[in-house]
């Protein structure tokens, strides 16, 4: 709840037309660039986790405890990949449904007559 109040207070001057949303747009673009850089790294880490579990499973011949541990690692790697791809697809779907293309400039809505 505190985060919502802080966000609302931070955006209050922009809503009162006392401040332009230029800084907010810059912040959104910076976060977008950060996500664009971090996403392939995180997907790579999830793939490494899956393959690490696969290697552990292959080398755990006869040791059931090690096999169970390797299966858990592989399962969490697959779950992480699934969640990342599903969220990415959902964001793309919502963006296309709202007519927002990647890299497109954001137009700030205005109130007519003010």
TrEMBL record:
Domain of life assignment: Bacteria
Transmembrane segments: 34-55, 75-95
Keyword vocabulary terms for this entry: Membrane, Signal, Transmembrane, Transmembrane helix
Signal peptide: 1-18
Coiled-coil annotated residue ranges, if any: none
Any single Pfam family the record assigns to this protein: T4SS_pilin
Protein name: Conjugal transfer protein
Organism: Candidatus Zambryskibacteria bacterium RIFCSPLOWO2_02_FULL_44_12b
């Amino acid at each position: 709840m505190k985060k919502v109040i802080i966000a609302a207070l931070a955006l209050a001057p922009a809503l009162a037309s006392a401040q332009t949303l230029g800084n907010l747009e810059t912040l959104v673009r910076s976060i977008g660039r950060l996500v664009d850089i971090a996403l392939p790294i995180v997907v790579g880490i999830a793939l490494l986790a899956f393959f690490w579990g696969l290697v552990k499973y292959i080398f755990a011949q006869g040791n059931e405890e090690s096999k169970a541990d390797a299966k858990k690692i592989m399962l969490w790697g697959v779950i992480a990949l699934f969640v990342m791809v599903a969220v990415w697809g959902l964001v793309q779907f919502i963006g296309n449904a709202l007519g927002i293309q990647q890299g497109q400039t954001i137009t700030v809505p205005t109130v007519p007559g003010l």
